Amino acid sequence: MTNTESVRIGVWFVGARGSVATTAMMGAAAARDGNATTVGCVTEGPDFQGAELPSLGNLVFGGHDICETPLPKRAEQLAHAGVAPARLPELVRADLAAADAEVLPGTPVFDADRSQREITTLLARDLRSFRERHELSRVVVVNVSSTEPRPSPRPEHERLEELERALDDSEPGREILPPSSLYAYTALRAGCPYVDFTPSLGARVPALDELARQQRVPYAGSDGKTGETLVKSALLPMFAARRLHVLSWSGTNLLGGGDGHTLSTPENVTSKTSSKQRALGESLGHPVDGDVHIDYVAELGEHKTAWDHVLFEGFLGARMSLQFTWQGCDSALAAPLVLDLARLLARAHETGHAGALPDLAFFFKDPVGVDEHRLEAQYEMLRRFAESLGEAR
């Protein structure tokens, strides 16, 4: 049986100085010292106590980012924005400073001086150094960086051999993989489990799935389910079970912060809206009219609001509607899920899992390897998966 109190696990954030990563690191340190509860952490519930997951206190943090704001300062900004209690950043300052010392410059979207093969070599060196210096059992890489535009499929994305050849032949300034997929490639090649918490392409490349299986490394994704889509996945089974015919489902999302600013770009927002709508048709078994709109409202800061209108048909063709409003603090909703996923991926890797982990669909809007979007069914898959982790030796 694993001694979870002694196993040290690295969590390497892509986007380490962003709101989600900072909140996760702040929360893990606070929970370890008894300065915060673990409300919102799914894996702290009773169904996961036998899964042999690493403890929150044994997570060691680092990452890549192109932002230069130190983590203690970022935490102060988040507390000022209402994400955390005002006194918390000072209580965990030493932990944040230690993590900040492990944050290294990431790769920009375009690099005119280095080929992508050179970039992967440098990124992998950072991961190995982090693992060796801290004597970590394993390192889980979690992508919480800004959403990217979805690139068009390319031939070299289909087979690992073709991708490796393209990277070997790559020249400075030429993009073979978008940054999220480059990080996924580097993580998997280095033997690190990988999590896509954004809707970016990441590991959703056939060649990278082949690499994950070859390297015996698990990955999970994509696009963390924290707000409006969480409510959808709980309501959709109700309509299906009662055989109420959903005619349209439209939503408007108002976002502040860096995520909202990124998604104000049409090329980026398409990745997000497509993942948010996927659950409808696949859960109900028929096309549903309507769309999701995302608007950037800077004054909302770290908070978000979603308003949904559902038009449905009942007995004798009677038309009815449901409307709901969801208001939340995005980072406070996402951060505990990130910690859950890091712990689950670390244990899955330890027990020999490789490739996509569809049993973690509960955490994602657009889960890999499965078409199940009903929240209760997803939770049951997750519960059984956790049970199997506890039984593994």
Automatic annotation (TrEMBL):
Gene Ontology terms, MF aspect: inositol-3-phosphate synthase activity
Single Gene Ontology BP annotation: inositol biosynthetic process
Keyword Transport: no
The EC number(s) this enzyme carries: 5.5.1.4
Organism for this UniProt entry: Halosaccharopolyspora lacisalsi
Record domain Myo-inositol-1-phosphate synthase GAPDH-like: where: 227-331
Keyword Isomerase carried by entry: yes
InterPro entries in the record: Myo-inos-1-P_Synthase, Myo-inos-1-P_Synthase_GAPDH, NAD(P)-bd_dom_sf
Stated name of the protein: Myo-inositol-1-phosphate synthase
